[in-house]
Design a protein that fits this description.
Blueprint (H helix, E strand, L loop, with lengths): L1 E10 L2 E12 L4 E5 L4 H4 L1 H11 L8 E7 L11 H11 L12 E3 L2 E2 L5 E2 L4 H10 L4 E5 L3 H4 L6 E5 L2 H8 L31 H13 L3 E4 L6 H7 L9 H13 L15 E2 L7 H5 E2 L4 E2 L1 H4 L4 E5 L6 H5 L2 H6 L1 E6 L2 E6 L3 E6 L18 H8 L4 H5 L3 E4 L5 H5 L7 H18 L19 H7 L4 H14 L3 H17 L7 H9 L10
Parallel strand pairs: 3-4, 5-8, 8-9, 10-17, 10-18, 11-14, 14-17
Antiparallel strand pairs: 1-2, 2-4, 6-7, 12-13, 15-16
Helix pairs in contact: 2-3, 7-17, 7-20, 19-21, 20-21
Length: about 525
Amino acid sequence: MISYAYTAGLFGIDSYEVTVECHSDTKLSLFEIVGLPDNAIKEAKERVKAACINSRLAFPDKEVIVNLAPADMRKEGSSFDLAILVSILINTKQLENSHLANDACFIGELSLSGDVRRVNGVLCMALAARDAGRKKIFVPFENAKEASVVSGVEIYGVKNVLEIVDHFNGMRPLTPVSYDRVENENAQAYPDFKDVLGQRAAKRAAEIAAAGGHNLLLIGPPGTGKSMIAKRLPSILPEMTFEESVETTKVHSISGLLPKDVSLIRTRPFRSPHHTMSAPALAGGGKIPMPGEVSLANNGVLFLDELPEFNRLVTESLRQPLEDGKITITRTAGRLTYPCNFMLVCAMNPCKCGYFGHPTKECTCKPTQIQKYISKISGPLLDRIDIQIEVPSLNYKEMSQGEATESSAEIRARVNKARKIMQKRFAGEVKESGSQITCNAQMEAKHIRKYCKLSPACSSLMEKAFNALGLSARGHDRILRLARTIADLAGSAEIEPNHIAEAIQLRGLDKKYFK
């Protein structure tokens, strides 16, 4: 006799349906799982058998062969346990209404006692099950909120095996879990910009970066507020769309970083890895390729504090993700692509001691040491950072006057207004990769020529800047993107000379530090 149950397997942030086929025969007692299982699935034989017996269900004393189809794709993880057990229970006729399982999907790990344990990547698998036509999805109780985000299906949270049996036998039917949108509207509170004293130029640069999605580099001595500004950037970024939330949640779900009581990430991620991290930790990797920090920061901010202290191989691995908005990791176990559409924000001191150019403290570094420290940042990486702004030290007057500063809410209102202009402009516009353009920083050459047309006065100013700063073609285009964002913040349909001038100033540190 052959019985069937359905589950899903993970392939990066994507998932695919898996058919669990169970065959039994009256031969010697044997239990085998085939279909390219990894070690975790091979060990499922013991978990499934113990869970069945400890739940006071009969485990067949005969040959049982379970096949995970498609058999040519490697299956990984413990989330197949529940589906394997259900296929055996159907095969041994312990589920009276087993026909109801034909349009169901079962996801979950089993404990030896029969409890159903939480697994990673449930949102990805639930989406795949829905797309495959399954109408009911049974997941671990702790994953039920996460799976409830998926519309068009019924989600059931299961605590143990007996709940599945009682549900299908009509004794105690389970109640579907619904997505609580109100609960998920409670956004995480980020630090507020009103706490940052002075630094008007740096805060203006942060506003422009947030409005256009531009990368940002903050340079200044210790204690001037570089990290404070960076940590407050998420508070002025536009609210995430539902599609962005789902994509971000999928990445965190498969990484096991989704909080237990959170069904959907509604606030933009802020990732701040330490400078001792490795290149695979940043870009992603491992025997089974997993998302790195660039993907965990997708739709949010990746903050690299003390940029020159990072290993050169680590920072250079950012170049391709910054251009493409996605990263492909190739290992022997497979080739996976993860999204990494993030804002890069970096902070650094102007020299090793930190006081080069300080008005009161003397720098102890030699010119060669300063140049060596600065040269740790390559030209190609620097060229991809749209805004480079100096954050000078504050004097006592600026600190003590307690001047009223704008709150994040006030700045965010202007950012949202500018983003709406961009959304209207880029409706239907896509990048070469096929992804939708949502902000000015994502414009490619053809879009720049279309939406950043310059008047003769603007063109003359750009020519002078190009020659004086020794800009590359990429640097030229990035100034135009910045000018377009500044114009949008000002509510101007055309790019004016003052917009060009401010955009040039925001890249004006090339000659001072990066000669």
